[in-house]
């Protein structure tokens, strides 16, 4: 080996370009690779290099944190040094301990002292990039899987990445986002008033990880303007711009109804908007959609064709072969939209299930439109 590569960190005075501090933080021997693993740095060495560079930068930043004001912000008397404190900081791929200078007021009657931890100064000692990773992993995987994934990415187990931390961060950020979702969108975030909107609501049951605990229901809604539907090819269409909301809260649908209303307002919902709503046969989906009725000109609810077919199959099984032909014929006649107030075959079949929705006191009850256009 004739040469080595040195990674050097220099602290340079910007004005004079004088190097005031110089540290060699890594040395790598330059050798001819004999296999693919010898090319460049190994995963663990890359993390180590980043951690070393981070440490060098953090030491300089910690010194700047200590060089704040010279007088007490409470009483104006001079400040005096009062020791230093070790403070943990968790970057996206590495953990660090900084020493921060602590100051206190020289006036014995005033008990002011400076914040001397990253936590006290910033409200958290976890870098937002790591918090984002926690939330993304926590949303996509179980918390224990998230911990495992983060350990793998990081080539080491870090206490900040343990499943309890990931859960806490996901819950915390989720609470903040939920509070935001509960507020109506700002006017500048909303599209111009929409003549028509399309809304799809669907739900599903998510099994609980713990045995003997009941599954919980999650409902999701998508709101978009019809002009945002784009034909990709003969069989596919794409929505260019949409607003999606979701809730798995067990709160009598309150969260998802509020979130859907705000999503619709964001897409331009107003008193003149005609809303076309698509959902499967679940009563909760319809209940969520009906919450929009007071805010729009008309709400046309459509049961998707797949679920019409399923309902027919159930009835066919119950009645036997004698009615099979008649039912099949009735099913295909449902290709025509029903006018407002008319109850067709579909309503007879589904009237019981949706009876609570049909009992809406308003004259503008939704028109249940069981049509093939809903596919
Ligand atoms: Zn003071």
Q: Describe it for me?
A:
The chain has 375 residues and is α/β, with parallel strands linked by helices. Among the domains are: 53 residues, no CATH class; 102 residues, 2-Layer Sandwich (Nucleotidyltransferase, domain 5); 72 residues, no CATH class. The chain is built from eleven helices and twelve strands. Strands 9-6-5-10-11-12 form a six-stranded mixed β-sheet. A two-stranded antiparallel ribbon has the order 1-2. A two-stranded antiparallel sheet has the order 3-4. It is elongated and about 90 Å long. The C terminus is likely disordered. The structure holds zinc ion.
Strand content: 15-25%
How does the helix and strand content classify structurally? alpha/beta
Low-confidence stretches: 335-375
Which fold name fills CATH's third level, the topology of the domain at 192-207 and 215-300? Nucleotidyltransferase, domain 5
Amount of helix: 25-40%
Strand order of the largest sheet: 9-6-5-10-11-12
Which class of the domain at 192-207 and 215-300 in CATH terms? Alpha Beta
Query: What is the mean predicted local confidence, pLDDT?
Result: 84
Order of helices and strands: EEHEEHHHHEEEEEHEHEHHHHE
Number of helices: 11
Name the overall outline: elongated
CATH-level-4 superfamily name of the domain at 192-207 and 215-300: Ribonuclease H-like superfamily/Ribonuclease H
The main sheet comes to: 6 strands, mixed
Q: Tell me the total number of β-strands.
A: 12
- Global Rg: 31 Å
Small-molecule binders here are: zinc ion
* Spatial gap, N to C terminus: 69 Å
Named CATH architecture of the domain at 192-207 and 215-300: 2-Layer Sandwich
């Amino acid at each position: 080996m004739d040469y080595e590569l040195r990674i050097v960190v220099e602290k340079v005075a910007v004005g004079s370009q004088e190097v005031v501090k110089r540290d060699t933080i890594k040395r790598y021997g330059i050798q001819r690779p004999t296999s693919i693993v010898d090319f460049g740095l190994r995963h663990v060495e890359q993390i180590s290099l980043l951690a070393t560079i981070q440490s060098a930068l953090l030491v300089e930043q910690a010194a700047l944190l200590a060089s704040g004001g010279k007088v007490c912000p409470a009483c104006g008397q001079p400040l005096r040094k009062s020791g230093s404190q070790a403070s943990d900081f968790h970057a996206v791929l590495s953990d660090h301990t900084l020493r921060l200078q602590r100051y206190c007021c020289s006036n014995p009657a005033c008990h002011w002292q400076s914040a001397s931890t990253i936590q006290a100064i910033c409200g958290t000692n976890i870098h937002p990039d790591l918090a984002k990773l926690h939330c993304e992993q926590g949303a996509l995987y179980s918390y224990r899987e998230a911990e495992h994934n983060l350990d793998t990415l990081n080539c080491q187990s870090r206490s900040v990445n343990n499943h309890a931390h990931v859960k806490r961060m996901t819950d915390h950020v989720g609470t903040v986002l939920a509070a935001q979702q509960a507020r109506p969108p700002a006017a500048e975030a909303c599209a111009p008033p929409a003549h028509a909107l399309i809304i799809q609501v669907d739900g599903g049951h998510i099994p609980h990880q713990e045995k003997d605990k009941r599954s919980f229901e999650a409902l999701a809604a998508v709101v978009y303007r019809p002009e945002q539907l784009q034909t990709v090819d003969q069989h596919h269409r794409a929505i260019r711009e949409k607003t999606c909301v979701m809730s798995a809260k067990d709160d009598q649908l309150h969260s998802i109804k509020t979130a859907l209303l705000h999503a619709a307002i964001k897409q331009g919902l107003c008193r003149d908007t005609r809303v076309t709503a698509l959902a499967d046969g679940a009563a909760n989906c319809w209940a969520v959609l009906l919450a929009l009725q007071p805010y729009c000109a008309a709400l046309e609810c459509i049961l998707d064709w797949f679920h019409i077919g399923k309902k027919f199959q159930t009835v066919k099984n119950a009645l036997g072969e004698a009615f099979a032909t008649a039912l099949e014929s009735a099913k295909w006649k449902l290709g025509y939209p029903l006018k407002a107030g008319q109850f067709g075959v579909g309503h007879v079949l589904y009237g019981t299930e949706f009876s609570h929705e049909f009992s809406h006191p308003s004259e503008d009850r939704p028109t249940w439109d069981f049509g093939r256009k809903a596919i």
